[in-house]
Amino acid sequence: MADKALTDFEKLKKAQDANLLILEEIDRLCRLHGITYLLDSGTLIGAVRHEGFIPWDDDVDIAFTRENWERFKAFSHELKSGFSLLLPEDFAGGTRFFDFTPRVIFDKSIRSMGGGLGFYKGEEAANYYEGRLNHLWVDIFILDNDPDSALLGKIARLKLKALYGMAMHYRFELDMDKYKGMEKLFVMTLSLMGRLVSMPRIFKMYEKTSVWFNKNKTKKLYYSNYQPDWLHCSVEREWSESAIERSFEGKRFMCPKDSESVLTMLYGDYMKLPPEEKRVPTHSEDIEILE
Predict the structure, then answer these.
(1) CA distances, 23 to each of 78, 136, 204, 291 (Å)
(2) Residue pLDDT, tens place only, 169-225
(3) Contact (CB, 8 A) for 135 and 110
(4) Are 72 and 35 in contact (CB under 8 A)?
(5) Do β-strands 234-236 and 243-248 pair in parallel, antiparallel, or remain unpaired?
(6) For all residues of the chain together, what is the average pLDDT?
(7) CA–CA distances in Å: residue 286 to residues 16, 112, 266
């Protein structure tokens, strides 16, 4: 098992090195088939601000436009041994829900059971997801057409949020203490409604809503599988439809053409460091890398 004598810094470095291996494999497969991906979220901040990982960050996020995502998915069987694509609907035949985020899994990494799965802790939660999340992974976010009509955009996002709430009925557990007031009532009601609709059906409805406006070219794109409180995020098409290369940990990876505008939209002043107490890793619990 993982060496318990490792310092926090050593654990963080180990997680970063493992995540870099996943990113390199994604990059290899994409370049082989002419597929464009984009560093996203904190990983993009790292590329722009630090030319590598944010010093306390321990995961990797990327984004694809829908077309590039479909091509990557089609070629995912060509990932090297030790890496695999995990789709949101892969748990128990699509009957369980974690979120709507596909992931490239590093199968040779084993996460500490004590670290849990994000907001879940312990072996019971890990088993509910069939042990498939007991590894390090790279999150994949998908960019779909954001309608030019603000009203239609709001309707689409409201439907996606409602479907997310219904899907929460199929999570390992739902911690209602995280919510207050009307938000708590909203989540509880939607979760109860989820009992009336199968999880496979919710998956189909979510994807159908995500691609609702993809037949016609729009001015903007939006991240259709972000968490509900980030669904408002959208980017100008020219910011993210093509890529440039930036240095990241001494290697070159694809980033949005206008990375600075994307980051400003997401975070505001992304060059400003967060308070020191928030500069902590969230995924680098003890991990073991199998040979």
Answers:
(1) 15, 11, 28, 18
(2) 999 988 888 888 888 999 999 999 999 999 999 999 999 999 999 999 999 999 999
(3) yes
(4) yes
(5) unpaired
(6) 92
(7) 12, 5, 30
CA distance 204 to 200: 6
H helix runs in the chain, sequence order: 8-33, 41-45, 66-75, 123-128, 150-167, 181-194, 199-210, 237-240, 259-267
pLDDT at 111 exceeding the cut of 90: no
pLDDT digits (tens, 9 = 90+) for 236-268: 999 999 999 999 999 999 999 999 999 999 999
pLDDT at 1: 43
| C-alpha pair distances (Å), 194 with each of 62, 91, 93, 130 | 29, 17, 17, 22
- C-alpha to C-alpha distance for 20 and 289, rounded to whole angstroms: 13
Give bridge partners of residue 255 from the DSSP assignment: 244
Single pTM value for the model: 0.93
- For residue 236, give the H/E element and its range: strand 234-236
Q: How far is residue 278's CA from residue 273's CA, in Å, rounded to a whole number? A: 10
Residue 238 has which token pair?
A: 């020219």
Long-range own/partner contacts, residues 270-276 (CB < 8 A, 24 or more apart)? 270/45, 270/48, 270/49, 271/49
**Looking at the chain, how many residues does it have?**
291
Please answer whether residues 104 and 138 qualify as being in contact, where contact means their C-beta atoms are separated by less than 8 angstroms: yes
What's the token pair of residue 162?
A: 């409602």
Question: Is 245 exposed, middle or buried, given 0-12, 13-18 or 19+ CB atoms closer than 10 A?
Answer: exposed
Distance CA 164, CA 143 (A): 17
C-beta separation of 84 from 255 below 8 A: no
Which of 25, 198, 14, 201 has the alpha carbon at shortest distance from 103? 25
